[in-house]
Specification:
With 167 residues, this protein is α+β, with helices and mostly antiparallel strands. It has helices at 11-27, 31-42, 97-103, 108-117, 146-166; strands at residues 48-60, 63-73, 76-80, 86-91.
């Protein structure tokens, strides 16, 4: 072939024809098969295919092939600790108690058990929130044993219920 370049078609015509061709390919998609392939490969359920983003004609193993980029909704669960550190990213609802322990770098259940055994010497903001009595003062005394605080709170609640029922 010689050195003379001759344009035989408009580049816009070619691009538009390719877009139309890719669009027609998308119409023939078997989405149930694509969902099965997705499930087998990634072990995730595709909730919904939102559609194709773009497509292209490519060469794979010396053969012409078509590449379509699809957008899909996939249910995921992200697990992170109290400090915001990432612990795991899994398919939603598929993390069992056993795998939670394996993927977690911190065992919170052991923390809670250890805290209970120590008598919960240190009361933190998320352990006991102040409970106001009818006079407006806190019913929880941070200097008391946590069990006594809980007992006092239970008595206050019982009194309040009695007042409500009595009126």
């Amino acid at each position: 072939m010689g050195g003379i370049k001759v344009k035989v078609n408009s580049s816009n015509c070619i691009k538009n024809s390719e877009k139309h061709f890719i669009s027609e390919l998308c119409k023939g998609f078997d989405w149930s098969t694509i969902r099965k392939i997705f499930k087998q490969r990634y072990h995730l359920d595709m909730l919904k295919a939102i559609g194709t983003r773009q497509g292209d004609i490519v060469v794979v193993d010396k053969q012409v092939a078509y590449k379509l980029d699809i957008k899909a909704m996939v249910p995921l669960s992200i697990v992170f600790d109290r400090r915001g550190n990432h612990l795991a990213l899994t398919p939603a609802g598929e993390m069992s108690a056993d795998s939670e322990k394996k993927t977690s770098s911190h065992d919170f259940k052991s923390d809670i058990a250890a805290e209970s055994q120590k008598g919960r010497e240190e009361i933190t903001a998320y352990d006991l929130l102040p409970f106001e009595n009818s006079e407006g003062s806190a019913a929880v005394d941070p200097n008391l044993d946590p069990k006594k605080n809980i007992s006092q709170m239970a008595n206050k609640i019982a009194s309040m219920i009695s007042e409500i029922n009595g009126k």
